Amino acid sequence: MRTTSAVPLRLGLSANARQFWLLVAVNAFVGAMIGLERTVPPLIAEQEFNLTSSSLILSFVAAFGLVKAITNLFAGRLGDKYGRRPVLLAGWLLALPVPLMIMLAPSWSWIIAANLLLGASQGLTWSTTVIMKIDLVGPQGRGFAMGLNEAAGYLAVAASAYLTSVIAANYGLRPEPFYLGVAFAAAGLALTALFVRETLPYTRLEAAHYRVANAPAGATPSLLTLLREGVWRNRALASANQAGLVNNLNDGVAWGLLPVYFAAQGVPLVQVGLIAATYPAVWGFAQLLTGALSDSWGRKGLIVTGMLVQGVALLGIALLNGFVPWMLSAALLGVGTAMVYPTLLAAVADASYPTWRGTAVGAYRLWRDGGLAVGAILGGLLADALSIPAAVLIVAVLTAASGLLVAVRMPETLPRPVPSEVS
Where do transmembrane segments lie in this chain (predicted)? Predict the structure, then answer.
């Protein structure tokens, strides 16, 4: 009788290329779902529902960010316990009604409700594709893998943001731009259901074959323990958490306030969409380089520099005027964000043990995406009390201060794992 054995698992991008690139494609559809919201919904608030308060306009960003942050936390925990693939499937099922709700919304509360669903969906889908790629590649090349993941997502954000602005300029704000969302959600669900495989076994492989200097083995810490450690005590995780929160704080302000501000200054809708798309486009492309650089240069220097570059870019948006200066500032903001985004994810993965890494990444993404809600609330209050440029100026100072805090507190986390003996 002839017996067959399963193909042995191996860590690394080349060893798992087919699944890795499939997950890159899935994450592109995840990003495209956010791109639907980068240009058109703030204008729907102002032009269709006659909202004049910046705080009310930004409420959809706050709703999205708050729910996504909380869902991130449980996505990592559930993935560690039950597997990654079921969590990814659940996220896509939540995404299906979102574009339909926006298309048919009779009031602004429907838009907020759609963003609650979208936030939950994004927390499950984006977190899980990140963790699955970390599972597949192992400790070497982690930054490069995160750069590819985030590049795919944010290039899709940029393309979707620009396409929706073009469609809106030619056909109106609703419903035509959101037909794209129906296609994106259906494609992401189909790819996941038909072709994505479970990656949880790779975490056990890594735990068996590598000693990880930054994260001693042991029982999976509780959520409360990880959250407590990540506030201050654990210098690596706490530094990453606060930088991630501030990074997305400024993204929440840019997302909700800047399209309205640029349109109020007489910038045509297609040009507003182009500025809105430039930021995530540069962010996406640059991550192909910055993620890989963090594997050789280290994590800390890129994070500090990236936060400072973001601060300078936001100063440019606040203090300069005109389409070209704003485009250049948006591009610079994308460069700074690209230096930070995949590097922070890699740093958190460095500082966590393979068997509870999903939980640690989920806790980090709770802090990071909570920044969207904080930015939306703070930005709206500052814009209503002062002005939109003043709000952006204050956020620029906070962003630079976050980078300086990382410089003072964060240890270098780039791993130097030593393979253990394998019998």
Answer: 20-36, 56-75, 87-104, 152-172, 178-196, 302-324, 330-353, 388-408
pLDDT digits (tens, 9 = 90+) for 9-49: 898 989 999 999 999 999 999 999 999 988 899 899 989 99
Q: Which two tokens stand for residue 282?
A: 């540069």
CA distance 86 to 128: 10
Average pLDDT over residues 75-92: 93
Tens digit of each residue's pLDDT (9 = 90 or more) over 253-274: 988 889 889 999 999 989 998 9
pLDDT tens sequence across 90-142 = 999 999 999 999 999 999 999 999 999 999 999 999 999 999 999 999 877 88
Position 72, amino acid: N
418 strand-pairing partners: 211
How many residues comprise the chain?
423
322-334: per-residue pLDDT in tens?
Answer: 999 999 999 999 9
Q: Does residue 340 sit in helix, strand or coil?
A: helix
The burial of 394, by beta-carbon neighbours within 10 Å (0-12 exposed, 13-18 middle, 19 or more buried), is given as middle
Helix (H) and strand (E) counts in the chain: 17, 2
Phi and psi, residue 210, nearest 5°: -130, 145
Q: Tell me how far apart the alpha carbons of residues 167 and 215 are, in angstroms, rounded to a whole number.
A: 49
Compute the C-alpha angle 226/147/304, nearest 5°.
65
Nearest to 201 by CA among 148, 289, 138, 146: 138
d(CA 221, CA 227): 10
Instruction: Tell me if 121 sits within 8 A of 95, measured CB to CB.
Output: yes
Arithmetic mean of pLDDT, 183-202: 96
- Other CB atoms within a 10 A radius of the CB of residue 271 amount to 17
User: In a 3-state reduction of DSSP, which class is residue 419?
Assistant: strand
First to last CA, the chain: 28
Residue with tokens 């509780």: 222
CA atoms within 13 A on the CB side of 330: 26
Rounded-to-integer distance, Cα 84 and Cα 79, Å? 4
Domains of the chain from N-terminus onward:
14-201+224-415 (1.20.1250.20)
- The token duo for 178 is 């959101």
When pLDDT is averaged across residues 370-398 and rounded to a whole number, the result is 94
